[in-house]
Write a structure and sequence with these properties.
Low-confidence stretches: 1-27
Mean pLDDT: 93
Distance between the termini: 53 Å
Number of strands: 16
Radius of gyration: 23 Å
Keywords: Carboxypeptidase, Hydrolase, Protease, Signal
Shape: globular
Order of helices and strands: HEEEEHEEEEHEHEHHHHHEEHEEHEHHEH
InterPro entries: AB_hydrolase_fold (IPR029058), Peptidase_S10 (IPR001563)
Protein name: Carboxypeptidase
Largest sheet: 10 strands, mixed
Strand content: 15-25%
CATH superfamily of the largest domain: Alpha/Beta hydrolase fold, catalytic domain
Number of helices: 14
Structural class: alpha/beta
Number of domains: 2
GO molecular function: carboxypeptidase activity
Pfam family, one: Peptidase_S10
Helix content: 25-40%
């Protein structure tokens, strides 16, 4: 059996963090919400937009109107356009603040990074964002409780927010209260999430719909709906199969494919066919596969992946993503990125089985964090004695509750999946449309895993047409890659135009 990578556990499920949660400090009084207003401008296609920005906290109430959290957000809007669409956006984690999307592609300004390499030291370049969504819609960037400025108040505890269902509930409450307060309940409405934010979206769209708040559309950036797809669990071959086309795309990019097809999409069509018709049946046989059959499959895996047939034989035809990061460029002393496999970094353990770090994360995190915080405190005018928390993993005792009521059978949880929620929402609302944006070089939430999920929803053909798939020659955060930014903007604009009228 292959052991799970410690890095994967930390980044995706945080199952190793088992300390007791600390309750937020309180003096017995519920602090008041506080917001800060500023004016931003943006010129797109020759037209200048005067945008009002409000950032700070909303006093979140539970179903009985008891205060439960100071909920952090940033709202961009045109004051004179009440009927404009509104997008609620967030990142993933769990649990990450929304500054990645905010300062990477959606807001009025963006950070410029050296894609696909390491960005130089400060001062970092920040520019007006010609790819923003603000010419099409108002925007609310959401920071769930535990990140940004969001924290429990009153009798609430961290554990009331840190879990699959708890997270969906609190964000759903915020969206409903915000729509009422901003007089946007009758405007076209959208959810936009990245990574775990797409897993959240699949549950949230049903939660809101059940409360009478139907979305016009949901935008999924680097999607995952079934978390078992991210984990190479014992006895489960699915993760090995769905990761393989991204291994092949990575080898194609790094010129590890002999006589490679110059057309990436045509190459990946061939890889999908091999995966479905030869690799999957081979894994299904388990130890009933003959030595000759196994060697034949190993040779084909080697041809598509850039790894040797001998390596595939030693791995019993099953290579985890962490092993792939470490092995592909080992002879060059490098490892490839998990979030974006175009990025490479120094291999810190040439004898190691698993990669020590993620070069893409190393390359872009410092500029994103530093430049966004300068923007937050200087441009948006937030109080400088407020601490903006970028990840809940930095909080002592952070632990995520992975139980989801939609996954319980025989009083036991059989999966970690919000795909059934999305299926139900689409079946009960045939007007709901889903836009899914996939990076070919994303080894965190792989594109073939999304395809597998969509193909197993059991939707009627006319409903399945409501799911629109778009692909990018970049990774998890495809918006670090400027050609993909152009495509991202065009794809999202077309989706809003189609679904808001």
């Amino acid at each position: 059996m292959k052991k799970l990578s410690i890095l994967v556990i930390i980044l995706f499920v945080n199952l190793c963090l088992t300390a007791q949660e600390k309750e937020p400090e309180s003096n017995g009084e519920t602090p008041k919400a506080e917001t800060f207003e500023s004016s931003q401008s943006l010129t797109m296609n020759g037209k200048t937009y005067g945008i009002k920005a409000v950032t700070g906290t909303h006093l979140l109430r539970d179903e009985n109107d008891e205060p439960i959290a100071q909920f952090g957000f940033t709202h961009y809007f045109l004051p004179s356009a009440k009927k404009r669409p509104i997008i609620f956006a967030f990142n993933g984690g769990p649990l990450s603040a929304s500054f990645w999307l905010h300062f990477g592609i959606l807001g009025p300004k963006r950070i410029v990074v050296n894609d696909p390499g390491y960005t130089g030291p400060a001062p970092y370049e920040v520019v007006k964002n010609e790819y923003s969504v603000l010419d099409k819609a108002d925007l609310v960037m959401i920071d769930p409780v535990g990140v940004g400025f969001s924290r429990p108040v009153g009798k609430a505890k961290w554990e009331d927010f840190w879990g699959v269902d708890q997270d969906i509930r609190s964000i759903g409450l915020f969206i409903e209260q915000f729509l009422i307060g901003s007089e946007k309940m009758n405007a076209p409405k959208y959810l936009l999430g990245e990574s775990y934010g797409t897993f959240r979206n699949a549950g949230l769209v049903k939660y809101l719909q059940d409360k009478g708040i139907a979305m016009n559309g949901v935008i999924m950036v680097s999607a995952v709906f079934e978390l078992q797809h991210l984990l190479f669990g014992p006895g489960d071959d699915t993760a090995y199969l769905i990761h393989f086309p991204t291994y092949a795309a990575t080898a194609w990019y790094h010129n590890k494919i002999p006589s490679k097809n110059p057309n990436l999409e045509a190459f990946l069509t061939e890889v999908r066919t091999f995966t479905e018709e030869q690799y999957a049946p081979a894994l299904l046989k388990g130890d009933q596969l003959t030595t000759a059959e196994k060697q034949a499959i190993a040779g084909q895996l080697a041809m598509y992946s850039g790894l040797t047939a001998d390596f595939w034989m030693k791995a019993d035809l099953r290579v985890t993503n962490q092993e792939y990061f470490q092995e592909l460029l080992r002879d060059q002393g490098e490892t490839v990125g998990r979030l974006d496999s175009r990025f490479t970094g120094i291999n810190e353990d040439m004898l190691g089985q698993y990669a020590q770090t993620d070069p893409q994360s190393d390359a872009i995190s410092p500029p994103y964090i530093a430049a966004f915080k300068k923007y937050l405190y200087d441009d948006l005018g937030v109080r400088k004695d407020w601490t903006y928390t970028t990840t809940a993993g930095s909080r002592e005792g952070f632990k995520w509750d992975w139980k989801h009521r939609g996954n319980i059978q025989w009083n036991a949880q059989v999966a970690v999946s919000t795909l059934p929620d999305m299926t139900t929402a689409m079946n009960r609302n045939p007007n709901l449309k889903i836009l899914i944006l996939n990076g070919y070089y994303d080894l965190a939430t792989v594109f073939y895993g999304v395809e597998h999920s969509i193909n197993h929803m059991g939707l009627k053909p006319e409903l399945k047409k409501n799911i629109i798939m778009k692909y990018y020659e970049a990774g998890h955060m495809m918006y670090t890659h400027e050609p993909s930014m152009v495509k991202f903007k065009a794809d999202v604009d077309a989706f809003i135009d189609e679904t808001s009228n």
